[in-house]
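Let us work through a complete example step by step.
Step 1: write down the sequence.
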Amino acid sequence: MVKIHSMEITNEITEILNPAKTVVLVWDVQNRLVNNIFNKEDFLAQTKAVLASARRQAVQVIYSRITPLPPQFESPVRKYFFRNMAAATSNPAPDALGLTIEPKEEDIVIPKNTPSMFIGTNFELLLRNGGKTTIVLTGIATEFGVESTARDAFNRGFFPVIISDAVSSMNKDGHFRSLENMKSMSIILTTTELDLVWKSNF
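Step 2: predict the structure and record it as tokens.
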């Protein structure tokens, strides 16, 4: 901690990633999306490694789950911009919106309807009630829900930590552009770097 104008400011990565104050958010790791990203096998392996590391530290894991609104109540803006999404993510899996990585009993699954975990959910209430100040982000897609949630976290006073090899997209270029964009308002770590912080300090 450092003091600036009589206020204590967190300035160490070990303080930010204190397991007692951290959650891991697994964003939209659902069959339809996972089966269409550019690096499926690597992404799944790294995401599972993040989860294993989090569980060793008793860090709360939270999954988002895309839960579409009834068609007559869906946003016309989303319909316009995602009108080709269904064709682009065609998937023979019978459970297209099922979670590819199965949550554990102690995990929390939160349904949501927008590309931000903070809109229309009790996510922020959950974090504040639990004294959580840091959100470690994994999932799909980097340039949509991951970046939107990271920006909303930053604007609400939470630390967003992006695990660069455990986020992905259908759009490889968009994925890397987004990681570059988020450097100004997020902490960017690899799975190995995250695990090292936790193993070395807690």
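Step 3: interpret the result. Residues 40-56 form the longest helix (17 residues).
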